[in-house]
Amino acid sequence: MEAFLKELSLASKHLIEFRDMYDYANRVKTFKTWPFMGNCKCTPETMAKAGFIHCPNENEPDVAKCFFCLIELEGWEPNDDPWLEHTKRPSNCGFLSLTKSFDDLTVEEYYLLEMDRLRTFLVRASMGIQKEIQEEYKGYKKR
Ligand SMILES: [Zn+2]
């Protein structure tokens, strides 16, 4: 039960925080300590254009996550093309499917986009919860 609530509160925290990440400049700002700068394909600018934000941790300094579909990629090489790497993954990303720039969306288009994003976050949270429940169930059966 506790894990369930933790998962839900993390999902809603990210759902709210990542809303600012529709803005390209805000996404670029997350790449302050990104290991690939300058003469390569996956610069902070190209990463941000492809929807990524930088989410490093102690062991993996190059973890990038799409703010919209939440796909996480690591192990980047200088010649990786962020847009290509993102489209290669079967995430059905609503951000990648945008046919116009975010600022040109109508209110209705933005609403639909946000519904899509909400659905993605809920699916992701429920997957985490299912895993927790299964682990707990397994632990219980072993007793
Ligand atoms: Zn995405």
Labels describing this entry:
143 residues, Inhibitor Of Apoptosis Protein (2mihbC-IAP-1), Chain A, 3-stranded antiparallel β-sheet, globular, binds zinc ion, metal-binding, nucleus, ubl conjugation, chromosome partition, cytoplasm
Could you describe the 3D structure shown?
The chain has 143 residues and is mainly α. Strand 2 and strand 3 form a beta hairpin. Helix 1 packs antiparallel against helix 5 (107-142). It has helices spanning 2-17, 24-29, 44-49, 82-88, 107-142, and strands at 52-54, 64-66, 72-73. It has 5 helices and 3 strands. The longest helix has 36 residues, at 107-142. It has a 3-stranded antiparallel sheet. It is globular. It has one domain: Inhibitor Of Apoptosis Protein (2mihbC-IAP-1), Chain A, CATH 1.10.1170. Zinc ion (ZN) binds at residues 51, 66, 68-69, 71, 86, 91, 93, 95-96.
Short description:
It is found in: Chromosome, Centromere; Cytoplasm, Cytoskeleton, Spindle; Nucleus. Belongs to the IAP family. The protein has 143 residues and is mostly helical.
How is the secondary structure organized here?
Elements: H1 2-17, H2 24-29, H3 44-49, E1 52-54, E2 64-66, E3 72-73, H4 82-88, H5 107-142
Antiparallel strand pairs: 1-2, 2-3
Bound molecules: zinc ion (ZN).
Structural class: mainly alpha
Number of extended strands: 3
Low-confidence runs of at least 5 consecutive residues: none
What gap, in angstroms, lies between the N and C termini?
A: 19 Å
User: Average pLDDT across residues?
Assistant: 91
State the CATH class.
Answer: Mainly Alpha
Subcellular location: Chromosome, Centromere; Cytoplasm, Cytoskeleton, Spindle; Nucleus
Family: Belongs to the IAP family.
Pfam family, one: BIR
Protein name: Baculoviral IAP repeat containing 5
